Amino acid sequence: MFQRPKQLSLELGSPPPSTFENFFVAANREPVQRLRDLPAALAQERASDRLIYLWGEAGSGRTHLLHAVCDAALQAGMRCRYLSPHHALADFIFDPDCQLYTVDDVELLDEARQIAVFSLYNEVRAYARTALVVGGAAAPRAMAVREDLRTRLGWGLVYQLAPLSDEDKMAALLQAARERGLQLSPEIAHWLVTRHYRDMPSLMALLDALDTYSLERKRAVTLPLLREMFAEFRD
């Protein structure tokens, strides 16, 4: 097994925006469809399930889906707020003009922000034109958060996100390559998935770096070119 190149994360740059279009669904069809439908249901004031909790291990796509549903809401002309442990406490205050709230890594929130999310649950539940989607690392009963917030996490729909298998990741890379007009063989997809980064954001960023590298050198994407790129990153 190769070591991860120390400089590679600096060379890859920012991953592409997270949308439903570039999310590889695999076994997560139901929660993805539920989130896809949410902005339209809110706009028509017919959203019956406005409290959704997504949980899964790192790399399962929680953050991607929270950004994707925000993107879909913004495209529909709605106000959306993405919240994480890094956001100011004031950002967690309920605003009835904001139709969609998403909260990421709920288990990492400090007590003040947990109390704020508890209040968001109560406000959103009482205000029919809004929705709240929260992401966490474990099922509600296993979350290391305040007891009152733990109860709220189980109020609405709860979905466990199934992580992608290596085969799914390879299929996702091949799909993304086709969308970019990049000729990528299954052999290269296998090499990328099994040798270095295992999470999809890093793999997609790596694919973009490989695309750029091949264009700059006017060479087709082959294993020798891929190894050359990694060797250059390590130098």
What structural category do the secondary elements indicate? alpha/beta
| Poorly predicted spans | 1-13
Under CATH, the topology of the largest domain can be stated as: Rossmann fold
How much strand content do the residues show?
5-15%
Tally of distinct domains: 2
Rg, nearest Å:
20 Å
Count up the helices: 9
Instruction: Return the CATH architecture of the largest domain.
Output: 3-Layer(aba) Sandwich
Mean pLDDT: 88
Fourth CATH level, the homologous superfamily of the largest domain:
P-loop containing nucleotide triphosphate hydrolases
Order of helices and strands: HHEHEEHEHEHHHH
Question: What profile does the largest beta sheet have?
Answer: 5 strands, parallel
Tertiary shape: elongated
Strand order of the largest sheet: 2-3-4-1-5
Tell me the number of strands: 5
Proportion of helical residues: 40-55%
State the end-to-end distance.
Answer: 19 Å
Please describe the topology of this protein.
Blueprint: H1 8-12, H2 29-43, E1 51-55, H3 62-75, E2 80-83, E3 100-103, H4 111-126, E4 131-136, H5 147-153, E5 157-160, H6 166-179, H7 186-195, H8 200-217, H9 223-234
Parallel strand pairs: 1-4, 1-5, 2-3, 3-4
